[in-house]
Design brief:
The chain has about 350 residues and is of the alpha/beta class. The protein is built from nine helices and 19 strands. The strands form three sheets. Strands 4, 6, 7, 10, 11, 18 and 19 form a seven-stranded mixed beta sheet that branches. α3 crosses α4 and α3 packs across α8. It is globular.
Length: about 350
């Protein structure tokens, strides 16, 4: 099969022939239909986060089940599925207490004594975030995907696999936005727009979108933002304080920068919660004023929207098909696998919310 391979940090992906194994007892072979390009992939490509190489990248995807292992019970051949990088075992403490996204059990991967899922003529290939979806097929654990309605377009379903689940989940699960509360979202890429949409679904009374690109701020209005702030023209903290007369109940940092994380915390009202969704580069230190904690302000991380994806993703599909979840407008372009490097250059420039690889 054709796949986009990262062999060296800082270098373009290479389109190569990669061999894929057959499903083990709890594994599923999926024909990839669509895969979104995410900033997280870019972080690993640029070395902000380390990862063993060579690796087939990609982690936001949807497809059709072609084969299942002998013990698979959750999906069947022919099912349309969304994949999720936060594969779960189902019986560790995290899983049993309802925190599926925090599961780190090695059971969802193949052991060192087993044949690798992916190989080339030169040797084993590393699977990326349990998925490796920049490829014509994926071989994954059954608890890394969920079956969905077949009337859901798979190019839009792919977005639910990461950016949408991350953003919507951060608003609904991680920060528990309640009807009437105030929200600010810094960064209106795919994840930030999903956080805006999630806050709107949760019933937030005022949703303030912050970005430096007018096109993204216009998109944010369509996704549910009641107010927008152009951070290239105005101090976002000062502007939020003026709009809300004292700060927001929930802020979401969806870029992954020191400066914007500190701004997200500073724009909180007393008792407010700052949620860091963006991937801040390893080793970066965040500076906060200690006195702010006396006002019961909180800062917390959010991993994949604190999801229970086998339940959450089919519900998000229903939200889309009923018109409440916005996905069509998030896709800036549909590309072929061979165009992946050009699309990542466009992602770096912040020109598009999402590019989606569509496989024939």
């Amino acid at each position: 099969m054709k796949a986009a391979v990262l062999r060296e940090v800082g270098k373009p992906l290479q389109i190569e022939d990669v061999q894929i194994n057959k499903p083990g007892p709890h594994e599923v072979l999926i024909r990839t239909v669509a895969a979104g390009l995410c900033h997280s992939d870019l972080h690993f490509m640029e070395g902000s986060y380390p990862h063993p190489l060579p690796a087939v990248l990609g982690h936001e995807s949807a497809g059709v089940v072609e084969q299942v292992g002998s013990e698979v019970r959750t999906v069947k051949v022919g099912d349309h599925v969304i994949t999720c990088l936060s594969a779960y075992c189902g019986h560790c403490e995290s899983c049993l207490t309802g925190h599926l996204s925090l599961c780190v059990s090695p059971e969802t991967k193949r052991g060192a004594d087993e044949e690798p899922r992916l190989t080339t003529a030169a040797g084993p290939m590393i699977q990326f975030l349990n998925l490796s979806s920049f490829a014509e097929h994926m071989l994954i654990h059954e608890h890394a995907c969920v079956a969905i309605r077949k009337d859901m377009p798979l190019d839009r379903a792919a977005l639910i696999g990461c950016s949408v689940m991350t953003g919507v989940g951060a608003a609904i699960h991680t920060s528990s936005v309640r009807p009437g509360e105030t929200v600010a979202v810094i960064g209106c890429g795919g994840v930030g727009l999903a956080a805006v949409n999630g806050a709107a679904i949760a019933g937030a009374g005022r949703i303030i979108a912050i970005d430096m690109h007018a096109s993204k701020l216009n998109l944010a209005k369509h996704f549910g933002a009641t107010d927008v702030i152009d951070a290239s023209q105005d101090d976002p903290v000062k502007a939020v304080m003026e709009l809300t007369k004292g700060g927001v109940d929930h802020s979401f940092e969806a870029i992954g920068l020191k400066k914007t994380t500190e701004q997200a915390f500073k724009m909180l009202a007393r008792g407010g919660t700052c949620n860091v969704i963006g991937m801040i580069p390893v080793g970066t230190m965040i500076e906060l004023h200690g006195a702010d904690f006396l006002g019961e302000k909180r800062i917390q991380g959010s991993l994949m929207g604190s999801n229970r994806f086998p339940v959450d993703m089919p519900r998000l599909v229903d939200f889309y098909l009923s018109g409440r979840l916005k996905l069509d407008e998030m896709i800036g372009q549909r590309i072929k696998l061979e165009e992946v490097n050009q699309a990542f250059e466009e992602l770096k420039r912040g020109e598009l919310a999402r590019s989606v690889i569509v496989f024939d």
